[in-house]
Amino acid sequence: MSASAPEKPMGYTEIPEVLDLNHTYDTATDKINDVILKKKTPMPIAVAMGICFLLVGLLFTTITKLVSTGIGIWGNNQPVAWAFDIINFVWWIGIGHAGTLISAILFLFRQEWRTSINRFAEAMTIFAVMCAGMYPVLHVGRPWLAYWLLPYVNVMQMWPQFRSPLMWDVFAVSTYFTISLLFWYTGLIPDLASLRDRAKTRVSRVVTGILSMGWRGSARHWQRYDIIYLLLAGLSTPLVVSVHSIVSLDFAVAQLPGWHTTIFPPYFVAGAVYSGFAMVLTLAIPVRAYFGFKDFITQRHLDAMSKVMLATGLIVIYGYAMEAFIALVYSGNPNEAFMMKNRMFGPYGWSYWLLILCNGVIPQLLWLKRVRLHTPTLWVISIVINIGMWLERFVIIVTSLHRDFVPSSWGMYAPTKWDIFMFIGTIGFFGFMMCLFLRFIPMFAGFELRELLHKKKSPPH
Amino acid sequence: MSQIFKPTANAVARLGIAIGFGVVVGSLVLLDLLTRSPYGTEVNVAREQPVPFSHKHHANMGIDCRYCHTSVEEGAFAGIPPTKTCMNCHSQIFNDSPMLEPVRESWKTGESLQWNRVHDLPQFVYFNHSIHVAKGIGCSTCHGRVDQMPLTRKVNTLYMGWCLDCHRAPEKFVRPKDKIFDMAWQPPPNQREVGLELLKEYKIDTEHYKMLDCYLCHR
After folding, report:
1. What angle separates helix A375-394 from helix A299-325, to the nearest 10 degrees?
2. Could you report the per-residue pLDDT of A6-35, keeping only the tens digit for each?
3. How many domains does chain B have?
4. Residues of chain A with pLDDT > 70: what percent?
5. Which of chain A's residues have a Cβ under 8 Å away from the Cβ of B157?
6. Of the candidates A151, A175, A4, A88, which has an alpha carbon nearest to the alpha carbon of residue A391?
7. Taking CB atoms and an 8 Å cutoff, what residues of chain A touch B24?
8. Is residue A430 in a domain?
């Protein structure tokens, strides 16, 4: 935004820098830490936290009811044996993907706009995976025996079924969660140390002191930090692709028309990144407004994320098109063709066309720079994409299952109130964890922002 | 402002990590050991019974297993004798022994004796005595030397892994038909060859995972 910028065409809007260069190291650090140490929680965030807390109560009530009664309180039953539980599992896992992509792949590609949103997106990943994990564990019906999913030496002399993609899920998701948590925490250590050095009360000094693990910022610390961070980024990178590929195999390995297709892994990964970025935007836009962080999360970030959404959205649309083409034309299989026609024009046809509208049509507005820079519209589009990605999983799961091979076993699915309570309960849990995160943990990688500030302000050397 | 934690805190933290790791791993190992110990399995732990019935005493007098456990060759359940079976003898011998008071009481009132089950399989396991007896598995293979037990106890865990030990390699355990009720039977040195022969004779199919099908026991 220098004064000597060359003349721009009419109506050209300058996209601002990745952070406000009027900041100094001190002001940047203070601004991040003050949220935790000094400021009161902004009113809208406090209200959101209260609502989310009530929803957490609803979640625990639902889980209690579920465990004490059995999963019969859910609406899924033959032929639709998987429904809200797996839809929501896949939806949440997908949302988590933006965090890993931003923290790992964009780090390796040295994307500057990653710096302001990585901490935030990683936290989102961790909480989303927590929400996701609840579903399969509760779906097994006896969650206290969930450890049977792990291969351990036992008196039954039984191993889990390693040929089952559900087993691969256990490894994929637990690895994903572990690496994401480590990555997040490693990045936090220097920031927790700077928080420790500025903390005033004894309690906060002790807590941040323990959490920062004796970080002193010595050259040796930084050297090791850089190595471990790079290693973790390298480890996370394949996870971006592997986790959702394996989740997609839950379906692709089955022989059901609508599930049994080789395009699933790449199409699921693109969808995951799509929904992940949509969720980052859904959360980042209010947070930057209410906490006053428009100088750290600038229009450039929103613009870059919109472009990622546009690109992954196009891959997803290509996936839908291919899915239809393969089923209707290429396969020559009457069962596949029937499934696709039923998906489009059957009793759940509305969900398919709503999906196309939410994921395919509306996001095309992002081609327009005006839309990308108009924050309220962008926020609405991000929510539309979240809904669209949920519908995608609904369409894949319910429309494929409800018309079985034998017409005598056809059926319809409708969620019960417990399905819905559980779903909004996890949304509340996610929101509550995010609010706690915003309140108690530095929401920006302060030292990385200072490094970026240094790079931007000093001449190249 | 001075730091709250001194450099020694680093050593404490490292020690804490080591101890935490030790506690987690240690408790898992302990849990596993407990599960396999008599505390968890009740192997060799005699159960309290209304009458201290001695299999040793009765078997040594030459009473056949089937005199009491009448349905072992035909039914899923080997059978617990009714009080009538006890009274066949005990109306004449030891008919005033205080130890046998509950038996006489049961005989008078018609209320069954409430024995405490020693070999108690969970309800989700289908087990059938007759098929095991018919295919050459003797009493002592699972129940041990009951004829030497003053008080009845388990000698095997009845864990699923223990069932599978035999279902994976039945040739190690099968015996000739006439030895089923021979409590003193020991596998001969050439059990492997004999066993494989017997598998053919009994038509036990170990080739097609039939013996390891989930559905075999979990119906």
Report:
1. 30
2. 566 666 677 777 777 788 888 888 888 888
3. 3
4. 97
5. 155
6. A88
7. none
8. yes
DSSP letter at A348 equals T
Nearest-neighbour CA in chain B from A157: distance (Å): 5
B-interface mutation test, from A155, A194, A210, A213, most B Cβ less than 10 A away? A155
Q: Determine the distance in angstroms separating the CA of B188 from the nearest CA of chain A, rounded to an integer.
A: 28
CB contact under 8 A, B160 and A214: no
| Residue A7 pLDDT | 64
Contact B4 A202 (CB under 8 A): yes
Closest approach of A142 to chain B, Cα-based (Å):
15
Residue of A155, A206, A213 lying closest to B159 (CB–CB): A155
Cβ-Cβ contacts under 8 Å, B7 against chain A: 214
Q: B72 and B92 share a domain?
A: no
Tell me if chain A has a CB within 8 Å of the CB of B4.
yes
The reply to whether B180 falls in a domain is: yes
DSSP B154: B
Same domain, B76 and B157: yes
Residues B141 and B198 in one domain: yes
Q: Specify if B94 maps to a domain.
A: yes
Residue A36 lies in a domain: no
pLDDT of residue A444: 87
How far away is chain B from the Cα of A230, in angstroms, using its nearest Cα?
A: 24
Q: Do B13 and A214 touch (CB under 8 A)?
A: yes
Give yes or no for B13 touching A (CB within 8 A).
yes
Nearest to A200 by CA among A46, A33, A42: A33
Residues B75 and B151 in one domain: yes
Q: Do B160 and A156 touch (CB under 8 A)?
A: yes
- DSSP class of A101: I
Judged by a CB distance cut-off of 8 A, whether residue B36 touches chain A is yes
* Tokens 């239809």 belong to residue: A324
Tell me whether residue A148 is in a domain.
no
Query: Looking at the structure, do residues B85 and B141 belong to the same domain, yes or no?
Result: no
For residue A77, list its beta bridge partners: A80
Q: Are B119 and B77 in contact (CB under 8 A)?
A: no
Q: A307 is in which domain, residue-wise?
A: 44-142+156-453
Predicted local distance difference test score (pLDDT) of residue B4: 80
Q: How far is A218 from chain B (nearest CA, A)?
A: 14
Residue pair B157/B119 in contact (Cβ under 8 Å)? The answer is: no
Are B76 and B86 members of one domain? no
Cα(A36)–Cα(A440) distance, integer angstroms: 6
What are the chain B neighbours of A214 within 8 Å (beta carbons)?
5, 7, 9-10, 13
- Nearest C-alpha in A relative to B163: A156
| Confidence check on the interface: ipTM exceeds 0.85, yes or no | no
Q: For residues A195 and A208, is the Cβ–Cβ distance under 8 A?
A: yes
SS3 B51: coil
Q: pLDDT-based confidence at B142, cuts 50/70/90? A: very high
Count: domains in chain A = 1
Contact yes or no for A209 and B161 at CB 8 A: no
Q: Is residue A149 in a domain?
A: no
**B206 and B128 housed in the same domain:** yes
The domain containing residue B95 runs over which residues?
A: 81-114
Question: From residue A228, how far is each of A186, A225, A234, B139 by CA, in Å?
Answer: 8, 5, 10, 61
Would you state the pLDDT for residue A44? 87
In a domain, B186, yes or no: yes
Q: Are A243 and A97 in contact (CB under 8 A)?
A: yes
- Both B145 and B199 in a single domain? yes
Is the Cβ pair B161, A154 closer than 8 Å?
Answer: yes
